[in-house]
User: What shape does this take?
Amino acid sequence: MAQTDTKTRILDAAEQLFARDGYHSTSMRSLTELAQVNLAAVNYHFGSKEGLIKAVFARRLNPLNRIRQEQIEAVLQQAEAEGARPQAKELLRAFIAPILEFRKTESGAQNFLTLIGRSLSEPDETVRSYFIQQVLPIFTLLFRSLQHALPQLPEQLLFSRIQFAMGAMSHMMVNSPQHQKTLPGFPKPLPTEQMADELLEFISAGLEAPC
Assistant: This one.
């Protein structure tokens, strides 16, 4: 088995099991069985289970965050060229659209998004802290950019509204329409693309609401 293939198998298996069972409940034995490797291979490539979860996040988030940064900076540059403030909706689009594309095009995407949902909702801080380390720079850029777009909002209020927006976004990412069950007596979920548009409308209206 080629070295790169071994590493990819381990990452894919870890992503699947961490999403399904949680980081702490996933045994190294089950992981090595799924990846068809031995424990020495995991230690060679990642050093430890902690090194592995960090690598799982980095594999997906590093390219996603580069795209997000480029798109946010493009919105800021366009606004500066026009002598105007950036639009909050366009900044949010730059942050959200790349992960929507990721969900459609990447194999294993739903496993990763489920893992993100677990990292944000479970009480244990271990996985959450690794995730926050990965997203803090791009979140800071988004926050500072939205401060520029919405200067009328006090900093504390803006931060709270962004947290609400991230909660709605996380819910949509983890609970995609194809994975939702229709409740008796209620309509089916919106198609994915329409739901994405509605999410953007919803959270931008919430951010821009008068204080």
Observations:
- The chain has a mean pLDDT of 89.
- The CA atoms of residues 79 and 86 lie 5 Å apart.
- Residues 49-82 form the longest helix (34 residues).
